[in-house]
Amino acid sequence: MNIQRWIARREPNWQRLDALLRQIEKKGLKSLRAAEIRELASLYRSVAADLARARTQQIGNTLIQSLQSLTTRAYTQIYQGSRRQEWQAILKFYQWGLPSVVQKTFAYIAAATALFLLGALVAWWYSWQNPSFMSLIVPESLITKVRDEHKLWMGSIVGVEPLASSSIMINNLSVSFGAVAGGITAGLYTVYLMVFNGLLIGAVGTLVGQNNLAYPFWAFVLPHGSLELPAIFFAGGAGFLLARAILFPGKYRRGDALKFYGSQAVQLIFGIVPMLVIAGAIEGFFSPNPSVPDAIKYLAGMGLFILLVLYCSRKEN
Fold first, then answer.
1. CA distances for 224 relative to 110, 157, 171, 229, 275, angstroms
2. How far is Cα 64 from Cα 165, in angstroms, rounded to an integer?
3. 175 exposure class (CB count in 10 Å sphere: 0-12, 13-18, 19+)
4. Could you say which DSSP state residue 161 is in?
5. What interhelical angle do 161-181 and 188-210 show, nearest 10?
């Protein structure tokens, strides 16, 4: 191989790759056009092959080191740069994308919330009118503990916080994903989950109220419930989006409607997961902690809920 002729033929590619890399290092990957990004990837592969050939032919250490430096810089920008872009996209979604999709799908989330509140109101009304109704919703062991022993049940979490927190997260995630998946039943299962969970919280709330334990009970519920319940409402909204695509595709074909509304549902799911993880940690470690005054728990719960509302209300400039 004529080394000088080979270097002369390949050197324009090396110089072009170096010029593109200098531009990226100065202005970022976004400064390149789509064609230049494709050119960058092609040049990287070409120069990497040149490096391998230079090593095989033992063409001077200076040239080998220069090509090694060039390929290392290109590798860093192509692969680590793409990872940076992925993280930037994730950050941008949680910064602006999630609040935007919550605002766009608010009617569906509100419908899920209304069904939950309706269930809670029905349970409260019937539990006062007919005490036997409560036993249809609330486990008898829990009723006995509250009514006969005048004790709440959350103390069982103390001492096993990590296990309890993990169990709580898994349970909440299963309920939420069930509400989302319920959309494929034309929303019937989603409706059932929203109403049933409302009935449960309404019946339990009435039970503790009748036995003068409402203040400590809601002190326990509010810190994690300020995130947990909205997450479940988001899940219900996602389920109703899927049901909308199935039942009322409108101007879309049903398959296209599922893609459109399903995309919004998936974005809501991305918001649900971190909310439930945080809520599970709070419920496992903070909410049942007897050393934290109830007043602080109320303040923490209200503060988290206000922050959530402000976050979901933000708009990108």
1. 20, 14, 14, 8, 10
2. 55
3. middle
4. H
5. 140
Phi-psi region for residue 26, left (φ > 0), alpha (ψ -120 to 50) or beta?
Answer: alpha
Q: Tokens 């509400």 sit at which residue?
A: 179
Q: Is the pLDDT of residue 27 over 90?
A: no
pTM: 0.73
* 8 A C-beta contact, residue 241 and residue 260: no
For residue 165, what are the contacts with CB-CB under 8 A and spacing of at least 6? 280, 281, 283, 284, 285
Confidence class for position 81, pLDDT limits 50, 70, 90: low
Residue appearing with tokens 């899920």: 112
Residue 130, classed as helix, strand or coil, is coil
Do 243 and 187 touch, CB atoms closer than 8 A? yes
The tokens for 35 are 């064609």
Query: How far are the Cα atoms of 18, 51, 54, 56, 65 from residue 60, in angstroms, in the given order?
Result: 20, 11, 8, 11, 9
Q: Per DSSP, which regions of 34-87 are E strands?
A: none
Cα dihedral 271, 273, 276, 278 in deg (nearest 10): -90
- How far CA 259 is from CA of 17, 29, 262, in Å, comes to 40, 31, 5
Q: What's the token pair of residue 148?
A: 């006969």
Q: Which two tokens stand for residue 48?
A: 């990497």
In sequence order, what are the residues at sequence separation of 6 or more whose Cβ sits closer than 8 angstroms to the Cβ of residue 128?
Answer: 206
End-to-end alpha carbon distance in the chain: 60
> What's residue 110's pLDDT?
97
CA distance 240 to 183: 6
Among candidate residues 51, 45, 74, 47, the one with its CA nearest the CA of residue 64: 51
